[in-house]
Amino acid sequence: MKKIILAVDGMTCSACSNGLEKYLNKQNGVINASVNLVMANVIVEYDEKVLNQDKIEKFIDEAGFKSLGEFKEIKIENKSKKEKIKFIIFTFLAILLMYISMGHMINLPTPPYLNPKTNIENYVISLFILTICFIIYGFDILKNGYKNLIHKTPNMDTLVSIGVLTSFLYSLYNMILILSHNSNDVMNLYFESSAIIIYFIKLGRYIDGLSKDKTKDAIKKLVKITPNNAVIKINGKLKEATIDEIKKGDIVVSKSGEKIAVDGKIVFGETHLDESFITGESKPVSKKIGDDVIAGSLNYDGYIEYEAVKIGKESTISEIVRLVLEATNSKPKISLIADKVASYFVPSVILISIITFIVYLILGFSFKESIITFVTILVVACPCSLGLATPLAIVVSEGLCATNGILVKKSEVLEVASKINTVVFDKTGTLTYGKLKVENIINYSSISNDDLMQIVGSMEVKSTHPISRAFTTYMEDKNISYLDVDNFKNISGYGISGMINNEEIILGNSKILKKYNIKNKYISDEEKLVNLGNSIIYVVKNKNIIGLIGVNDIIRNESKEVIKALKNMNVDVVMLTGDNSKTAQIISNSIGINDVVSDVLPKEKNEIIKRLKKDNKIVMMCGDGINDSPALASSDIGVSINSGTDIAMNSADVILINNDLRSIIKLLNISKKTIKNIKQNLFWAFLYNILMIPIAIGLFKNFGISINPMLASLAMVLSSITVVLNTLRIKHIKER
């Protein structure tokens, strides 16, 4: 299976995107296709043995659209001067057409050569010419409507096309009769209806397009973060290069005030970098040799040289943009309601309009009135607002999450997050900063403390557990060199093991002693360190305990605030940790968590998550994304913290790029407001169609309530604009 994101041109409304999506999903070899109207792209998962990019692009062309190749950047198209002029011209032509066709009805001054009473031929021909202009203007609508009908995926454009062409052909027939002097009934001409329907739809899509561009702003900012050019060092000489010319391993130079061009590692110099765009931390971060740098960071005050590590699509920013795009293309369950209704709605409307037309003729109504009612039903029932209800809200919310340092990988998360009633936290690196430090060293051997720590540090530098940072920091501060380690093994949930100078070294908590059947004579010392809030590391050499180390951590400043906020939202909070019960209890008591599960292995964390779900809990798990991967994957929503520079490796559904637990509260609030907004959109879209179709049929004519095709098209546009404006309110959600 392979996945590709293609840019698509020619999609103007939700009916277009839905039609394309249905057509692609029907094709042999396509596993899943998801079309994003707002981003103007399509994500296609396909069997590479059956399809390739060329064949997929051919399918897109067959559906009435154009592939622009692989999606590389988010484009916010500023309406060109030419396009604006065209729109202004057609606005003028629409006014002129309405004036010519209806001016005489309300006694407006009409030029004699266009007066239907004195120059009927001129009058008819002028309406025909103006209408032809609008037919050309709206040819994309008519073309898409026809193609979707042929592909058996009728949509909004199909309804409009049938209505416009029916009205136009009926008027054309009567125009021929008039010009042949076989009829003088100019009231049977409805050229203006065909033209104005197209104009109003174009007006709606023009406004709609401007609104949708605004929803891309947050993501577009990410794309603009990295500079276009940089300076690379080749054989001691400096050379200016574009971003695309930089290769892995190149040495890139950054001076004070310049932006980092690609993800890399500092090989010379030191500075402070502003990484607020990705971490949310406004304070510049100190960077020295060996530290990682992220593309887009601002070099605050120093000169550095760094080796290019991740370029192009591998960079942190590119990865964020890709994941956000995929998230906006995925669909929450609530959107399936609108999709399912729309799939039955369009064919039903066509059937209703045909039946109404036949019934009108049977009841003795004139052909003119029957055909106008037929057209009105088709136009007024266009489900454009229905199709916009969900995807627009999702894109706006994804953008809002991105600007708050919350990377949501799947849009389903926004729906599930609104129902979360239990949040489970890992301790180390999540509720605490994970910036551990060595607090106590109890040495049971004949070697010095520095020699003992040299053994421990040499082992821990190979570990991925957050606790290892305490030892690597200790080694750097004391300027202790590292020893060679052979046969290194990570024993998940217990500790690590390896060989140093042909001697077996084991490091871990008290559980590792039981695993290796090592007798523990130092339980009292362990209890003393635990009572001080330390996490415990036993040092074992050749099955003998030679040291006991206490490592302390710092609780995150916002932890207590977040726990309190969750409780106020009636959300249960649980702390899961592999640490001992006493240390866990000290931490939990200080931040207000009552439900604590300690001494658990990663696989046991997973079992606890599953148990909570069996108890009908909707669970969010928040961890470091490495040791907690099984639990993150099992939870309804997995949230990873401290993963801003390693996004692709994460198994979580949500990544808190800014490493701030308060983002969880923001996510829950955004999700609740988003789902509420979608429900409002769907309600108004459904209500609009439920109310307008009976009016269009003529069921309320006896009460003086009726509409014609032009009013129907205007009402349809207003419905879509209402949905757009309601959706844009999400941008103003207050996080707390």
Kindly describe this structure.
Among the domains are: 2-70, Alpha-Beta Plaits; 227-314, Distorted Sandwich (Calcium-transporting ATPase, cytoplasmic transduction domain A), CATH 2.70.150.10; 404-424 and 557-668, Rossmann fold; 437-552, Calcium-transporting ATPase, cytoplasmic domain N, CATH 3.40.1110. It is built from 26 helices and 26 strands. Helix 24 links the parallel strand 24 and strand 25 (637-641). The radius of gyration is 33 Å and the shape is elongated. The two termini are 42 Å apart.
Overview in brief:
With 736 residues, the protein is α+β, with helices and mostly antiparallel strands. It has 26 helices and 26 strands. Among the domains are: 2-70, Alpha-Beta Plaits; 227-314, Calcium-transporting ATPase, cytoplasmic transduction domain A, CATH 2.70.150.10; 404-424 and 557-668, HAD superfamily/HAD-like (Rossmann fold), CATH 3.40.50; 437-552, Calcium-transporting ATPase, cytoplasmic domain N (3-Layer(aba) Sandwich).
* Spatial strand sequence of the major β-sheet: 14-26-25-24-15-22-23
CATH arch. level architecture of the domain at 404-424 and 557-668: 3-Layer(aba) Sandwich
CATH class of the domain at 404-424 and 557-668: Alpha Beta
Any idea what the radius of gyration is? 33 Å
- What is the structural class? alpha+beta
CATH topology of the domain at 404-424 and 557-668: Rossmann fold
Helix share, percent: 40-55%
Secondary structure tally: strands: 26
Average residue-wise pLDDT: 81
Largest sheet: 7 strands, mixed
Task: Work out the helix count.
Answer: 26
CATH superfamily of the domain at 404-424 and 557-668: HAD superfamily/HAD-like
Low-pLDDT segments, ≥5 res = none
The percent range for strand residues is 15-25%
Termini Cα gap: 42 Å
Query: Quick one: overall form?
Result: elongated
